[in-house]
Amino acid sequence: MDKDIQDRFSTYLEENRVKERRKTEVRFTILKEICDFPKHFDLEMLQDKLDAAKYRVSRATLYNTLNVLIDAGIIVRHQFDAGIIAHYPHQKPIPIQYELRKKAETHYHFVCTRCRGIREVKNMPHIQAPGSNFTAEYASLCLYGLCNRCRNRIQREAQKNINQSQTNKSKK
Ligand SMILES: [Zn+2]
Ligand SMILES: [Zn+2]
What we know:
Layout: H1 3-15, H2 21-36, H3 43-52, H4 59-71, E1 75-78, H5 82-87, E2 97-100, H6 101-104, E3 107-112, E4 118-122, E5 142-145, H7 148-171
Parallel strand pairs: 3-5
Antiparallel strand pairs: 1-2, 3-4
The structure holds zinc ion (ZN) (2 copies).
């Protein structure tokens, strides 16, 4: 685990007077597992990881710790389907995902509206607030569209339909 992430969490717990040792230990264990995820994770994935490492952590503690980590500015919560549900109300929801804020700041998210795959794109131009009346603390930007696979599939299907209607016409 990164030393600065660890320090940041310690400071936060001290400032908020979390003195109970057992509680603190469990939270650091959870944070350590979180730091090992290469990408986003949801509650289910985190629970599985802790189970595999033989750490018994209740759902309530897990959920509570995630919220504490958000408050501490260590992780961010992503609701990737927010922009999908608005336009495609019948699509299945994507579970709430989390990731280290430090990681989230390095990329934007491209979300496919069909397969709901999420791609992280780095080295995007940095968006700056115009003027001096706003200071950005972090970015959580999602672009919604089609991944190549879905776009090719949709094009193939459209082509198939055209071909089919042409054969039907020539049969007549
Ligand atoms: Zn991400
Ligand atoms: Zn897709």
